Amino acid sequence: MTSASQTHIGYIRDENQDRVDVRPYGEHLVLAVFDGMGGERSGSKASSMALDVFFEHFEEGYTEDMDAYSIRSLLLSSVSAANSVVYTTARMDYQNFGMGTTCVAAFVAENYIAIANVGDSRAYWLHDGTLEQVTTDHTVVHMLLETGQITEAETKTHPQRHMLMKAVGVERTVYPDFFRLDVQPGSGDRLLLCSDGLSGFCSDEEIQAILREAISDEETVQKLIDAALEKGGRDNISVALATLS
Question: How confident is the model at residue 40 (pLDDT cuts 50, 70, 90)?
């Protein structure tokens, strides 16, 4: 199992409010991407705080003999812990009011992957050369699409396409989505976590083409970042990648 991660401020934003990390736990990996939101520096503060609390909580509860059900509980409770800290901090100082962050996090084991997400940062799975979006965007446009009020084409230009329905730190309690993938060691399949600085500007077909290339994780991550920058780099771009080599 190999991995790599990278974040880029892009060409337009004054600050990078994304945070990304990949950490080993014995033979396993945890990948996480947080995309902050809020006025001035609050978005950066929210994503940094959330990532730190998420990993602190995970590391406090993790043991190598945990089964898949226990990992699910720990992953979800780590997101909830991050939510509580960001929510409380936002209400202690009016300058932080309204801050929050997306979260997509994954635990990668030998035979399964556990994924939790809140917001519109995504998890993709490349299996047998075909890319699948695993997570569901918690956005207004996705809700409108699901209820038949707009078309797929309209989601690309809708004025509320960046408006979140759910985020870490906005409400007292958060309910992350959870997904499990059964995987084969050595398959060469790939897990990609990313902020919308990538998925919002590069199509699934473009992402799939890069992930299919027989190049290292570091080279793949760089090519994904470069692809988003070539589209104008209008947002922060964060990518975390794991390959079942």
Answer: low
84, 169 contact by CB (below 8 A): no
Angle subtended at Cα 111 by Cα 107 and Cα 113, rounded to the nearest 5 degrees: 25
| Whole-structure pTM value | 0.93
What is the Cα gyration radius of the chain? 17
Give, as one character, the DSSP assignment of residue 89: H
- DSSP per-residue string spanning 22-36: EEEETTEEEEEEEEE
Tell me how far apart the alpha carbons of residues 243 and 198 are, in angstroms, rounded to a whole number: 19
Evaluate whether 221 touches 8 at the Cβ level (below 8 Å).
no
Q: What φ, ψ does residue 55 adopt, rounded to 5°?
A: -70, -35
- What φ, ψ does residue 71 adopt, rounded to 5°? -65, -45
pLDDT digits (tens, 9 = 90+) for 70-118: 999 999 999 999 999 999 998 888 777 789 999 999 999 999 999 999 9
Give the C-alpha separation, 179 to 116, whole Å: 7
